[in-house]
Design goal:
GNAT_dom, eleven-stranded mixed sheet, disordered N terminus, Aminopeptidase, transferase, acyltransferase activity, transferring groups other than amino-acyl groups, Acyl_CoA_acyltransferase, GNAT family N-acetyltransferase
Length: 281
């Protein structure tokens, strides 16, 4: 999977414990929906770790999280070791995602070494963001054919665009993201098309009374044209109509964060995903 460079050093924002906890719970809750939407997926809640396993080749969909803040190195080791034992039963790579703000100050400098000693390396850096409401757009939206995801074409389009943006094989993308179960009543997903061809995607998920924005992806040839913002806004509007919600959370890559800030999202905390390779790699 394509490695995404880290953002500038953290923290860069005023910290709110409640919003840090919310950002973590939203991440975990969204991946719970993904796992439960996959044919072989499952969610395992243990005292020491929270596992959302898609059991697919794309390691990003085989995730583990802390169930609560870790105070000591032993707390973090127990969580990682428990997840490692679980995923050792299968052939796929997996990821452990955490926010440094859920580690005690004494533990934070040791986190990379603890994960590395278990074969996990940092591979994705994200900013947890929140908006109570979206700001008005600063420019007119581009002309797009916005299609709801309701059938096999839509499922495949969501998978193919995201796979291309993360340098994943199409087959792996479809295994992970084309399952109809992902796009059930807790999801409002849309594809932005250019001349009938899928170019941009967004999914809005209902997670604990909040609109969680996921699977925002735009093919290279359609970037810097406002297409991602247009599809995201449409997905948020449709989710708001369907569920009566407005507050929204997402986790942004360094490339996406500036777009979301212009839309009214603000930074809450940073996240790092550490990846373990598949067996035999």
């Amino acid at each position: 999977m394509r490695r995404i460079p880290p953002p500038v050093p953290l923290p860069r924002w005023p910290l709110s414990r409640a919003e840090i906890d919310e950002s973590h719970a939203q991440f975990r809750g969204a991946w719970r929906l993904f796992a439960l939407g996959l044919p072989g997926g499952e969610v395992v809640e243990r005292a020491d770790v929270f596992i959302t396993a898609g059991h697919v080749a794309w390691s990003l969909m085989n995730m583990a999280f802390l169930p609560k803040p870790a105070e000591t190195q032993a707390d973090l080791e127990r969580a990682v070791d428990s997840a490692a034992r679980y995923y050792a039963q299968g052939p796929h790579g997996w990821a452990f995602t955490l926010t440094p703000d859920w580690l005690s100050p004494a533990l934070r400098p040791q986190a990379d070494a603890v994960l590395a000693s278990r074969g996990l390396k940092p591979g994705m850096f994200m900013t947890g963001m929140v908006a109570d409401r979206l700001l008005a757009p600063v420019r007119p939206p581009p002309t797009l054919d916005l299609r709801p995801v309701r059938d096999e074409w839509g499922h495949n389009a969501m998978a193919d665009v995201n796979a291309a943006c993360y340098d994943m094989p199409q087959a792996s993308g479809r295994e992970a993201l084309a399952a109809p179960g992902i796009y059930g009543p807790e999801c409002r997903a849309f594809v932005g098309c250019h001349d009938g061809v899928a170019g941009t995607t967004t999914a809005a998920l209902r997670v604990d009374g909040v609109i969680y924005i996921a699977l925002v992806a735009t093919l290279a040839q359609h970037r810097r044209q406002g297409t991602a913002e247009a599809v995201l806004r449409h997905a948020h509007t449709e989710a708001k109509k369907a569920w009566g919600l407005e507050r929204t959370v997402l986790h942004a890559t360094p490339a996406g964060a500036p777009i979301y800030r212009r839309m009214g999202y603000r930074d809450v905390t940073g996240f790092v995903s550490y990846f373990a390779p598949p067996k035999g790699a």
